[in-house]
Amino acid sequence: MLDQLDKVVATYNADGFVAGLPALSLSEVEEMRAYIEWLEARHAPGAGGHSLAQFFRVNGHVVIPALAQAARHPTILAAVEAILGPNLLAWSVELFIKEPGSAKTVSWHQDITYWGMGETNDEVTAWVALSEVSQAAGCMRFLPGSHLGGVVPHTDTFAEDNLLSRGQEIAGVDEARAVYGPLAPGQMSLHHGRCFHASGPNQGTDRRIGLAIRYVTPAVRDHAPGRDWAMPVRGEVPRGGWDCIVGARGLFDPADLALYDRILMGQSAALSAGATGKVALYEKGSAT
Fold first, then answer.
1. What's the pLDDT tens digit per position in 80-118?
2. HEC string of the chain?
3. What's the CA gap between 51 and 59, in Å, rounded?
């Protein structure tokens, strides 16, 4: 196992990503997908003035227990710990869903551009497939080695079919160098926040469902202004610029909904900084 993790770390450090790693069992995938689709059927309006779609895309672990629990999965944490070290926080848990035949895409971008964390190396995204995520289904593409540079300029497009909060994109990416990262159900990829990545439309016959868990270390806030919220999942509980949360205590619990509002208000300034238009995803009442 240690030898395998050493190879994962070496690939990640060289390329900025690694794909096809085991994360969840097939039974765990089936259970999680069934739960997500139950939420869609029974709780589509959401709660507390927020749509279910907003909870899926922004900090769902604060109000949906299953998403908080997913961030604590030992197989996922073992791989992330090999890269980031023993002290881990889940900063955000999100769902990216593309319906079959959907034109929805994700443009070329770097994750940490608007996170308010600077150009840190102390973060990694675990992207877990909850369905078959093939090239036809619109799997992610990565640009190897792009994480070795800094954060580059992004243009806000606010394109209707772009799943990103402001349709942000990097111009002039050499797509001939891009590498596809297809995933079978239960597999995951890990990518660095400065790694250029994108994904195309779902031309398959099934939903394309991905669970994105953003992990950071306590050190992320050592040189960042202000405070932020995160859920400790392994190692020491941090101090300093972190407000630590425990994750959802129940589905749409009133106290969790109040916390969700405070977090959204606190994070929205950084996440919307420099936007050339309204970033609805971070506003209360968003139905995005």
1. 999 999 999 999 999 999 999 988 888 888 888 777 777
2. CHHHHHHHHHHHHHHCEEEEEECCCHHHHHHHHHHHHHHHHHCCCCECCECHHHHHHCCHHHCCHHHHHHCCCHHHHHHHHHHHCCCEEEEEEEEEEECCCCCCEEEEECHHHHCCCCCCCCEEEEEEECCCECCCCCCEEECCCHHHCCCCCCECCCCCCECCCCCCECCCCCHHHCEECCECCCEEEEECCCCCEEECCCCCCCCEEEEEEEEECHHHHHHCCCCEEEEEEECCCCCCCEEECCCCCCCCCHHHHHHHHHHHHHHHHHHCCCCCCCCHHHCCCCCC
3. 13
pLDDT at 25 over 60: yes
- Taking the C-alpha atoms of residue 59 and residue 267, their distance in angstroms, rounded to an integer, is 11
- For residues 215 and 165, what is the distance between their CA atoms, to the nearest angstrom? 19
Query: What number does CATH give the domain 2-278?
Result: 2.60.120.620
User: Which residue do the tokens 């990565």 mark?
Assistant: 142
pTM for the structure as a whole: 0.90
Provide the CB-side half-sphere exposure for 281 (13 A, CA).
20
Both structure tokens of 139: 């799997």
Residue 74 to residue 83: CA distance in whole angstroms:
14
- Return the structure tokens found at 21: 């790693």
